[in-house]
Amino acid sequence: GAVVSQHPSRVICKSGTSVKIECRSLDFQATTMFWYRQFPKQSLMLMATSNEGSKATYEQGVEKDKFLINHASLTLSTLTVTSAHPEDSSFYICSAPRTSTDTQYFGPGTRLTVL
Amino acid sequence: GESVGLHLPTLSVQEGDNSIINCAYSNSASDYFIWYKQESGKGPQFIIDIRSNMDKRQGQRVTVLLNKTVKHLSLQIAATQPGDSAVYFCAENIAGANSKLTFGKGITLSVRP
Q1: Rounded average pLDDT per 10-residue block, chain B, 113 residues
Q2: Is residue A84 predicted with pLDDT exceeding 70?
Q3: Given this model, what pLDDT does residue B93 score?
Q4: HEC profile for chain A?
Q5: Residue A92 in contact with partner chain B when CB distance is under 8 A
Q6: A interface mutation test: which of B32, B39, B46, B53 has the most A CBs within 10 A?
Q7: If you measure CA to CA, which chain A residue comes closest to B6?
Q8: Does residue A39 sit at the B interface (CB-CB below 8 Å)?
Q9: Cβ contacts (< 8 Å) between A44 and chain B: which residues?
């Protein structure tokens, strides 16, 4: 069964609004989680590393004020897309490493559509 | 089945044949490699992994081969089934699961009935 969940699975919002996406590790704790963005027929692009107890680490070219990340607990990280615009429409995926098996597991993804 | 580099986007195989998907990784310091399967509209699903101290690892119907000399990774799927149709990504990182993954471009596997 799924070990990482995301909510919502799909969201449609108006331009200028903010959208929050949740990523949860279901049966293990994760001090680190990762957020990716994926455009159609392309690979996953790492946006940022979410760190429990400290600030997120953003990849080059990713605006930290645009994509707010909060690692609220050892099982929850949230990504907030602020003042969303149509170009932010994408598939957002999180992952969490399960250190007991040394494997990263991915969430099912969130399809964001900004009108 | 055919072996296809990741610069070619699609691999088409006959149901029941073996599939070979290849990946050339870039970082010689990478010591952990993973293959993921992604179905349309879903997140990547872990298939199999291998560490740099191994050159072969087998799972159920899948085998991963690692050639560190030429920085090459391959995924072999035995007796390919329609349910194997998906996009496959190789990923690499250094020092275990807590470090960030670098993904390859991905290849679409299409299984002909």
Answers
A1: 46 96 90 93 94 95 96 97 96 77 91 93
A2: yes
A3: 86
A4: CCCEEEECCEEEECCCCCEEEEEEECCCCCCEEEEEEECCCCCEEEEEEEECCCCCEECCCCCCCCEEEEEEECCEEEEEECCCCHHHCEEEEEEEEECCCCEEEECCCEEEEEC
A5: no
A6: B46
A7: A43
A8: no
A9: 44, 89, 103
